[in-house]
# Entry
Amino acid sequence: MYLAFLQAPKCGNQTKTDDPYAFNAREAIREPLIGKLVDFTIEYQINGKKYISILQEESTVTFNFMLVQHGLAKPIDKKATGRLFELIKCAG
# Structure
């Protein structure tokens, strides 16, 4: 699964280095979610890949929005219309 409406820095592997701030973006999602219940919504699918928004149970802000708001991801336009995309676009 992938985060909907975002372009986040990519983590590297043995042959490729991390994009700048990739670790920070990954940790911004991972740390608050470990051991917690979350809700996710499949926003769209492209070529069998599911793009989701993540919402922590007691929160009203998606992690997609938070990443853009903190400068750890950029909003992208996949011809989306919906409230989530508009919020993310405004945060960027």
Q: What stands out?
A: The mean pLDDT is 83. The two ends are 22 Å apart (CA to CA). The first strand starts at residue 2 and ends at 3. The domain at 2-91 is CATH 2.40.50.90 (OB fold (Dihydrolipoamide Acetyltransferase, E2P)).
